[in-house]
Amino acid sequence: MKGEDEQRRAGEAQVGKAEAGSEPGAGDKAKPAAKGARGRSARKAADPGGVDRIVVTDAALAKIVGLSAHEVPGVVGMAPASLGEGIRRILGTRQVDEGVVIANRERPDEADVDIHVVVAYGVNIPVVADSVRERVRYAAQTYAGVKLGKVRVHVAGVSRA
Questions:
Q1: Beta-carbon neighbour count of residue 113 at 10 Å?
Q2: Range of 99's domain?
Q3: Which of 25, 83, 114, 138 has the greatest number of beta carbons closer than 10 A?
Q4: Is residue 112, in this structure, part of any structural domain at all?
């Protein structure tokens, strides 16, 4: 039994040495590959347009903005921002990005947003609009990594909550 365990351990040690490149000639091959791999990963980190870049689409950003605007007390719902959204609403399909228009996406980490909301009757509209603006900026920066330049809140209507 002891002899078998010792042979197994010796075999594992030989395999470990072979993988580490302790065999003659193996170390020469392994070192350049590791150096090249390090050089490439360093270039990826330094290159902002490389493979590791994350881009949030306009549709995803619009959904984040729409959901965060719905969280603000005093907002009853979103108003359609275009004729197409109005037709979708009439046909019965509602989207979380309804009433959100993303503009000025020249850079992937910046955008401007127009939000069309319906507020509850009796609320202070400027305070609700400021709360929507703050909440949307926070959500876009925190969840998507997108800094919002202009956030325009359009109060399209007043409704009973």
A1: 24
A2: 58-159
A3: 114
A4: yes
Q: Mark whether 40 and 106 lie in a shared domain.
A: no
Taken in order 16, 18, 21, 24, the sign of the CA dihedral is: positive
Residue 52 resides in a domain: no
Q: What would the pLDDT profile of 114-132 be if each residue is shown by its tens digit?
A: 999 999 999 999 999 999 9
Domain count, the chain: 2
Residues 30, 33, 39, 45, Cα dihedral to 10°? -100
**Least confident segment among 86-90, 94-98, 142-146:** 86-90
Bridge partners of 114?
101, 152
**Distance (Å, whole) CA 139 – CA 79:** 20
CA distance linking residue 48 with residue 53, whole number of Å: 7
For the CA atoms of 97, 103, 104, 107, what is the dihedral angle to 10 degrees? 10
